Amino acid sequence: MTINDIAKVCHDANKSFCEIIGDESQLPWIDAPQWQRSSSVDGVIFNLNNPGGPPSGSHERWLMVKAAEGWKHGKNKDPEAKTHPCILPFDKLPEEQQIKDHIFKAIVNGLAIFCTDERQPTPGLGEIAKKTEAEKGG
C-alpha cells in the first residue's frame, strides 16, 4: 500500500462522512482536483511522520499549507477565490469538522504498518507553494 493509496482511502472516508453530515460537495478521488488530492497526500505524509500527534496537529498543518497557497477564511469553500470555512483554529471548528481530522488520523495510523513507500520528510511550506504554482501552470 502506497502513500497515495492511503490518501485515497482517507479522501473517500472523508467524502462518505461529509455525505452523512449533509455535504454532497466532495468528489470521488478519481474526479477530485489535483490540489485536493495533493492536500490528502500531504496530510498522510505529515501523519506518518507524526503518529502520536493529536488530530489538531493535522489541522494546524493543513492551515499552514492553505496559508502558503494563498487561501483565506470564507463562508463557502471556493477554490477559485481560495476561501474555505474551515480556515479556523481547530478548537473553533464545529464538532463535525473536528471529527474529520480524527477520522483522517485514525486511518493513517491504522494503515501505516502496511505502507510500502519509504517514509518521506514532510514537505516544507515553500515546496508546497512552488508545487501549487507548477500545478496551476505558473
From TrEMBL:
Pfam families, alphabetized: RyR
Protein name: Ryanodine receptor Ryr domain-containing protein
Ryanodine receptor Ryr domain residues: 58-100
Organism: marine sediment metagenome
